[in-house]
């Protein structure tokens, strides 16, 4: 196993270019099997989850070629294969294979997801949607079995605003007979990105990005070419790192609107922000005000930026309160930050963070965003070296992390643990 070694205290300076969105890519790749001919995806992030997904499609007989940031997927000859085990177990979002295979083959056997373990990740809303479309869904020996004589459009109300359920139901509904309406749908930009791909394939999806999505089912979809939107969470992580190290960084290849909630909170703290068309400059300041942050569904403050933001708030004067209303227990980074001297108390869904300088320590990443939080914390510490284990988690969400940070002037390197 590897660990990240961080000798901090150096302000990040320069430009970082953001790659394609992980949480789009791992939905767009399975979506490609709904087409009868080749799908080309550009601006693909080079991440382990993306590599696992190409493995899964190749197992089904898809022809997948990946060159730089472009993946070509030819699903013409794929077959319906049960996948109770194997690569599907390596990642959380393997559940998208359920919607994609149900849409294409009217059947699927998918092993329950693995991936991040910060709290149990139910898929009851996904299953509710599939059943509404006419599928029978059973859970046998840790694998979800789905089967439908035919898929018929339905009206589905999501009890919980869920990104995964919204996308998964959209995948199956594009090949159902008739129209489907998803109400109380999630509005994240990644959902719009998947709908854009499906519409380029000939689907008819309206309302993606709003709480009501209408899908007209099609009997056949064709290949297309699609460029993935920039990763707003990766961008937000670098923005927070620039602020935490009092640096001056241009975050390039972003859609500023996707980062509105974070930008507003950084400005509230006293961070300097310059917004351009496709980039945001972050200018760190010596003093930051403590603030309150609520992680909510989009367009609220992203829960995926909650842990990195916790590290920044340790640098503010006074006491900040950060609450997560999406996940009830996404605070596994807090005890690790405490080992670095952070003064944080978790009460229910909230972390109460008292501004306090951090010191170097050996810490452990438990999920990819907690890992990012620990890296940011290490970057603020000028004395000693912070060691972060669990790098495999961080690599799932941040491609070129060490290269990017070193180009911004950080003294960070990988070392065998
Ligand atoms: C997506 O996960 C992201 N992952 C997560 O990012 C992100 O944190 C999350 O959306 C929220 O924005 C991917 O896109 C691969 P949800 P997802 O379904 O779709 C509950 C990262 O760090 N829920 O929107 O699994 C659930 O427990 C990852 O990149 C149900 O109760 O999240 C949670 O409390 C981590 N039943 C809330 O809804 C369901 O059937 C939101 O979950 C589904 C979800």
TrEMBL record:
<feature type="binding site">
    <location>
        <position position="304"/>
    </location>
    <ligand>
        <name>UDP-N-acetyl-alpha-D-glucosamine</name>
    </ligand>
</feature>
<comment type="pathway">
    <text>Cell wall biogenesis; peptidoglycan biosynthesis.</text>
</comment>
<keyword id="KW-0131">Cell cycle</keyword>
<feature type="binding site">
    <location>
        <position position="326"/>
    </location>
    <ligand>
        <name>UDP-N-acetyl-alpha-D-glucosamine</name>
    </ligand>
</feature>
<comment type="similarity">
    <text>Belongs to the EPSP synthase family. MurA subfamily.</text>
</comment>
<feature type="binding site">
    <location>
        <begin position="22"/>
        <end position="23"/>
    </location>
    <ligand>
        <name>phosphoenolpyruvate</name>
    </ligand>
</feature>
<feature type="binding site">
    <location>
        <begin position="121"/>
        <end position="125"/>
    </location>
    <ligand>
        <name>UDP-N-acetyl-alpha-D-glucosamine</name>
    </ligand>
</feature>
<keyword id="KW-0573">Peptidoglycan synthesis</keyword>
<dbReference type="InterPro" id="IPR005750">
    <property type="entry name" value="UDP_GlcNAc_COvinyl_MurA"/>
</dbReference>
<feature type="modified residue" description="2-(S-cysteinyl)pyruvic acid O-phosphothioketal">
    <location>
        <position position="116"/>
    </location>
</feature>
<keyword id="KW-0133">Cell shape</keyword>
<dbReference type="InterPro" id="IPR036968">
    <property type="entry name" value="Enolpyruvate_Tfrase_sf"/>
</dbReference>
<protein>
    <recommendedName>
        <fullName>UDP-N-acetylglucosamine 1-carboxyvinyltransferase</fullName>
        <ecNumber>2.5.1.7</ecNumber>
    </recommendedName>
</protein>
<keyword id="KW-0670">Pyruvate</keyword>
<feature type="binding site">
    <location>
        <position position="92"/>
    </location>
    <ligand>
        <name>UDP-N-acetyl-alpha-D-glucosamine</name>
    </ligand>
</feature>
<dbReference type="Pfam" id="PF00275">
    <property type="entry name" value="EPSP_synthase"/>
</dbReference>
<feature type="active site" description="Proton donor">
    <location>
        <position position="116"/>
    </location>
</feature>
<comment type="function">
    <text>Cell wall formation. Adds enolpyruvyl to UDP-N-acetylglucosamine.</text>
</comment>
<keyword id="KW-0132">Cell division</keyword>
<keyword id="KW-0961">Cell wall biogenesis/degradation</keyword>
<feature type="domain" description="Enolpyruvate transferase">
    <location>
        <begin position="7"/>
        <end position="404"/>
    </location>
</feature>
<dbReference type="GO" id="GO:0008760">
    <property type="term" value="F:UDP-N-acetylglucosamine 1-carboxyvinyltransferase activity"/>
</dbReference>
<dbReference type="InterPro" id="IPR050068">
    <property type="entry name" value="MurA_subfamily"/>
</dbReference>
<dbReference type="InterPro" id="IPR001986">
    <property type="entry name" value="Enolpyruvate_Tfrase_dom"/>
</dbReference>
<keyword id="KW-0808">Transferase</keyword>
<dbReference type="InterPro" id="IPR013792">
    <property type="entry name" value="RNA3'P_cycl/enolpyr_Trfase_a/b"/>
</dbReference>
<keyword id="KW-0963">Cytoplasm</keyword>
